[in-house]
């Protein structure tokens, strides 16, 4: 009897350990497979040749204009406003000079602070008399690569853009001619204008050109992402690597956030316009008056994005995780009526078909976030210009 049960126990023990072995080797096999997959992915993405990367998952809508992500190209300066270091210095000085504002207190740099990723880290900005605006200040980093400026693209060049905040009642609130007149009266500016433009005449046009020239030099230096795709295969963690892959495949971010600037420079509706709600923003419609453009915003570039919280045109989201979770749910526009009546016209917010339920796991969400963080470069220390007297 005892002998019998002992042999049963022995058999049972053997069976269990056999099963355990099988399971272990299955788990081991899976781990090996995963490692081989990651090793392969790492090799392809850090090969230095993006044509070897896995194919991106694109919607037919984005395919015709698609440009692969990669390094930022060189900045092009317009023919009628070529670069010179003297013009850059003048532009930088003006950018930091509060005397362009009515109160003599607010400079461009008040809302585009180099220590805050060239933004202001606020939900929406405040300007003249501490009035609040309605939109989040965009970084001016890499603005040279934006085909149009502002969340709704209402300025078509940096030259045109630069006069707008000076005149905006809620920002610097100064008439541009008065601003130019004030600068012309400052003796110390004469030499700067002369070096930049050949003579000391101050005009609003020259102010714009100088500021725009300076802004074109505010460009990201190479990030961890740039080093990785150039062949430094060891700089990425597995999570960052998987995040890059998800960005181009399952999560389909690359439909809109593409090219070296990480934006297709188009206007898209991702379901953030709050039409019919408090805080509604018509977005691109306000510029074009085309009904389809209601609720569309310019696709922002994602370089340096970890430095430019809060996010979206209205600064509603405080963290990258929140933004990615929102995308994962397909940007459902929960409580919105999604339509509004504006100047007698009913406008609907029609979300892009490229925004859909992604059902990302928590792990995938954190991998995407880890990848986005590799798009930031080291913050450069800026030597503040001396303001002329
Ligand atoms: C009071 C805060 C404030 C001041 C001052 C200010 N800006 Fe801005 N800036 C903003 C906000 C807010 C936006 C986004 C506005 C929008 O999209 O409607 C913006 C957008 C921009 C953009 C667009 C970037 C892009 O990618 O499209 C540029 C360029 C810019 N500002 C440059 C300047 C310059 C140059 C000055 C000084 C002449 C200036 N700003 C002064 C708050 C400010
Ligand atoms: C259909 C085009 C489209 C797709 C697809 C898309 N985005 Fe966006 N993204 C936008 C637009 C447009 C905005 C600006 C929306 C706003 O301001 O209300 C934006 C804003 C963002 C922002 C905030 C940036 C800032 O400076 O405020 C982040 C971060 C972002 N997207 C990441 C992603 C990620 C990650 C994915 C993939 C999961 C993704 N996007 C997919 C178009 C898109």
UniProtKB/TrEMBL annotation:
InterPro entries: Cyt_c-like_dom, Cyt_c-like_dom_sf, Cytochrome_c_Peroxidase/MauG, Di-haem_cyt_c_peroxidsae, MauG/Cytc_peroxidase. The keyword Methyltransferase does not apply. Binds 2 heme groups per subunit. Heme c 1 binds at residues 108, 111-112, 128. Transmembrane segments: none annotated. The keyword Metal-binding applies. Pathway: One-carbon metabolism; methylamine degradation. Heme c 2 binds at residues 253, 256-257. Keywords: Electron transport, Heme, Iron, Metal-binding, Oxidoreductase, Periplasm, Peroxidase, Signal, Transport. It comes from the Bacteria. Pfam families: CCP_MauG (PF03150). One of its GO terms (cellular component) is periplasmic space. PANTHER family: BLL6722 PROTEIN, CYTOCHROME C PEROXIDASE-RELATED. This is Methylamine utilization protein MauG. It comes from Chryseobacterium mucoviscidosis.
């Amino acid at each position: 009897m005892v002998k019998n049960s002992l042999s049963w126990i022995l058999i049972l023990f053997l069976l269990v350990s056999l099963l355990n072995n099988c399971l272990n080797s299955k788990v081991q096999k899976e781990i090996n497979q995963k490692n081989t997959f990651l090793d392969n992915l790492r090799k392809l993405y850090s090969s230095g040749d993006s044509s070897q990367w896995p194919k991106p998952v694109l919607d037919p809508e984005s395919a015709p204009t698609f440009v692969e992500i990669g390094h930022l190209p060189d900045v092009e300066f317009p023919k009628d406003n070529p670069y010179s270091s003297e013009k850059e210095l003048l532009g930088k000085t003006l950018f930091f000079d509060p005397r362009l504002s009515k109160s003599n207190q607010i400079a461009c740099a008040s809302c585009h602070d180099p220590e805050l990723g060239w933004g202001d880290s606020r939900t929406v900005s405040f300007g003249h008399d501490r009035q609040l605006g309605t939109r989040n200040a965009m970084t001016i980093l890499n603005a040279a690569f934006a085909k149009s400026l502002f969340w709704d693209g209402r300025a078509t060049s940096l030259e045109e853009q630069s006069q707008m905040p000076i005149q905006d009642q809620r920002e610097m609130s100064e008439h541009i001619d008065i601003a130019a007149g004030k600068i012309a009266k400052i003796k110390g500016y004469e030499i700067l204008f002369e070096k930049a433009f050949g003579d000391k005449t101050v005009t609003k046009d020259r102010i714009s050109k100088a500021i725009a020239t300076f802004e074109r030099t505010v460009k990201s230096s190479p990030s961890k992402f740039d080093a990785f795709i150039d062949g430094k295969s060891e700089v990425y963690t597995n999570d960052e690597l998987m995040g890059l892959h998800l960005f181009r495949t399952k999560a389909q971010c690359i439909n809109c956030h593409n090219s070296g600037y990480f934006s297709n420079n188009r206007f898209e509706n991702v379901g953030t316009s709050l039409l019919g709600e408090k805080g509604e923003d018509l977005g691109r419609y306000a510029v074009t008056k085309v009904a389809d453009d209601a609720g569309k915003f310019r696709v922002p570039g994602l370089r340096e994005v970890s430095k430019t919280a809060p996010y979206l045109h209205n600064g509603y989201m405080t963290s990258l995780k929140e933004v990615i979770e929102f995308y994962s749910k397909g940007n459902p526009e929960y409580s919105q009526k999604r339509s509004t009546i504006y100047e007698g016209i009913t406008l609907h917010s029609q979300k892009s078909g490229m925004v859909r339920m992604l059902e990302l796991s928590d792990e995938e969400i954190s991998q995407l976030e880890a990848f986005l963080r590799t798009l930031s470069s080291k913050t450069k220390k800026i030597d503040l210009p001396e303001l002329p007297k």
